[in-house]
Write a structure and sequence with these properties.
CATH superfamily of chain A: Cytochrome c oxidase, subunit III, four-helix bundle
Distance between the termini of chain B: 53 Å
Structural class of chain A: mainly alpha
Number of helices of chain A: 6
Order of helices and strands of chain A: HHHHHH
Radius of gyration of chain B: 19 Å
CATH topology of chain A: Four Helix Bundle (Hemerythrin (Met), subunit A)
Strand content of chain B: under 5%
Largest sheet of chain A: none
Number of helices of chain B: 4
Helix content of chain A: over 70%
Oligomer: heterodimer
CATH class of chain A: Mainly Alpha
Order of helices and strands of chain B: HHHH
Number of domains of chain B: 1
Distance between the termini of chain A: 68 Å
Largest sheet of chain B: none
Shape of chain B: flat
Number of domains of chain A: 1
Chain lengths: 196, 109
């Protein structure tokens, strides 16, 4: 007796954006940042005055700039995936290049912010708020750095014709990782730069 | 079993998400970022500010998940992981803001 199989053409109601491997990685990343956010909230509960005062000293311009760069880059990468699904390879490549260019603004903005922080006496020994701030934001930057390296790889593969409308799981995997990293920053930003 | 596996591992070609929809999500995210910053400055010290910030954190995460990650069409595990992560910080923010003293007592060494 043959095993039951799905009728040909009946697609499942759900899908895995990219591939399973990247979602193992993304799940690990989200668990990691959940634990780091737990550290933030416990530190905040124990030191409410330090957390209220600390946010006043950070550069809101830098935080906002990084947020807009992350969101913009995410948008461009989403457009790249959408364009390739519409079989517009060249447009997809251009969107991806835009996404990478915008994403590169993040480490530049971060370097300028850290330089500004140090000029204003904000360093790792400035108190519990800034310790947690550096701990979380530097970790995020490391993850964003991996995303940028992934973008370089995917851009090279895309330019070499490695992705098609039917098979672009690598591009989708990179997009999924970058969007997840974006969600993490969108959580970080108000916790450090808005709540004073 | 092989046919079943291959039908699940080979994702069908999804229709492209309209650029206009992605653009609207981008504009909303950018606007929420600037508005959130403004609210933090104008309503500094207000007891209900954490509630507003918690709502905005959740909304922005949900916008990215739904529009960029297309979470509604994703595997249920992926959907749940994203929903749980996006909800975690806002819930902890509310807990810390309104029951901060109690949380500190529970977690004191």
């Amino acid at each position: 007796m043959p095993d039951a199989v799905l009728p040909i053409g009946l697609a499942p109601a759900w899908r895995i954006p990219g591939n399973k491997g990247i979602w193992v990685g993304i799940t690990c990343e989200l668990v990691e940042f959940t634990l780091m956010f737990l550290v933030y909230f416990l530190a905040r509960a124990h030191n409410p005055e330090a957390f209220q005062a600390g946010a006043e000293r950070l550069s809101r311009i830098a935080g906002t700039a990084i947020t807009l760069l992350m969101v913009g880059s995410s948008f461009f990468i989403a457009c790249s995936v959408s364009a390739l699904r519409a079989d517009k390879r060249r447009a997809s490549l251009l969107w991806l290049a835009l996404g990478l260019f915008t994403a590169l603004g993040y480490p530049v903005a971060k370097a300028l912010e850290v330089s500004w922080n140090l000029e204003h006496g904000i360093n790792g020994s400035s108190g519990i708020f800034f310790t947690v701030y550096y701990y979380l934001t530097f970790n995020h930057m490391v993850h964003a750095g991996w995303g940028i390296l992934g973008m370089l790889w995917v851009l090279a593969r895309h330019a070499a014709g490695g992705y098609t409308r039917e098979d672009h799981s690598g591009l989708e995997a990179l997009a999924s990782y970058w969007h997840a990293t974006d969600i993490i920053w969108l959580t970080l930003f108000p916790l450090f730069y808005v709540l004073a | 079993m092989d046919a079943l596996d291959s039908s699940f591992s080979r994702s069908p070609v999804e229709p492209p998400v309209p650029i206009a929809r992605l653009g609207l999500a981008w504009l909303a995210l950018s606007a929420l970022t600037v508005i959130g910053l403004g609210l933090g400055i104008w309503f500094h010290g207000q007891p209900w500010l954490p509630l507003l910030v918690a709502g905005m954190i959740w909304l922005k995460g949900a916008l990215v998940a739904r529009n960029f990650l297309e979470s509604r069409h994703a595997h249920p595990f992926i959907r749940r992981v994203l929903q749980a992560f996006i909800a975690f910080a806002p819930l902890m923010l509310l807990l810390t803001s309104f029951l901060g003293d109690r949380l500190a007592r529970w977690t004191a060494l």
